[in-house]
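DM from R.C. (forwarded with permission)

"hey, sorry to bug you on a friday — could you get me a structure for this? deadline for the figure draft is monday and I only need the backbone to look sensible"
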Amino acid sequence: MTSRPDMAPGAVGVVLVNWNGAGFTIPCIESLRAGSVTPDRIVVVDNASRDNSADLIAERFPEVDLVRNRENAGFTGANNIGITRLLAAGCDYVWILNNDTIVERECLGTLKSHMDGHPEVSACSGKILYDGPGRRIWYAGARYHHWSLGFSHVGQGEDDAGQYDAVGDVPFLSGCCMFVRREALERIGGFDDHFFAYWEDSDWCLRARHARLRLQYLPGAVIRHKVSATVNTLKKQRYGGTTSPFSVYITNRNRLYLIRKHGESLLQRSAALLAFAGWFCYYGAALLLLFRFEKFRALVMAVNDGFRNPLGSSSGPVMAPRYLG
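My reply, with the result:
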């Protein structure tokens, strides 16, 4: 890995976001270095970790470009910092990868060779499996649901028996693994910082859809994912359940952001909002019945902010999320 600004054509840069997660980030970097094809540059953006994560990563991998944020810039802001650095360094491909992943040996080689051979494809992702024994699928492609303005993963929860081993176009790439051509990022930009975390990949893919960019799923590129490992550090068990007020707030606020930003017609927006209203009533009632009042308050604040906060352009002023801690 080098830091020269005149990288050879086809250079690949990886951006990893770390937040109190050296235990995830270090094995991820090790798996990248063990691949049959290795990245030309790795940028780790540390989101103001309160432990010694950044120091551990710097000590273990002095060749890695480590950015130490003074404040938590979120998944969106930290990735955008890494993307900017990789593009400035001359990378033709930017691999946005969750730090709680392990990539298999042929993963990067498969992604890069496919993109080299298919210049009409703007971005791609591989097959993402749950971490652990067996081969249980988390992502093997995606479907777009027009009326709810959402996406769902193909094959999620199924055992991988080769049933999703065909290369194909997809409407959605998870932010867990997005291998993006430089020209696509220059055309539509990185993530919208208004989202901070969650639904930012949906927003990016809808922008790609509007720009008629082609996205593909490559089953030969395999990643294992410790699903939600980083955000689990925000869980406050005193609130009960397996979520925190922050995750309740940010996911529901951003769902409304997405509807406001991408609803193409009054009918589509109305249908999506109706679906959200049904979810709000169901989930809100469950929280009240379980006496999880702080989470219910977070849900109400999400609706308030989701409707009232200004969105503007992706580079405009951003409202900081509540409950970050």
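R.C.: lifesaver. The longest strand covers residues 215-225.
me: no worries. Residues 230-239 have pLDDT under 50 and may be disordered.
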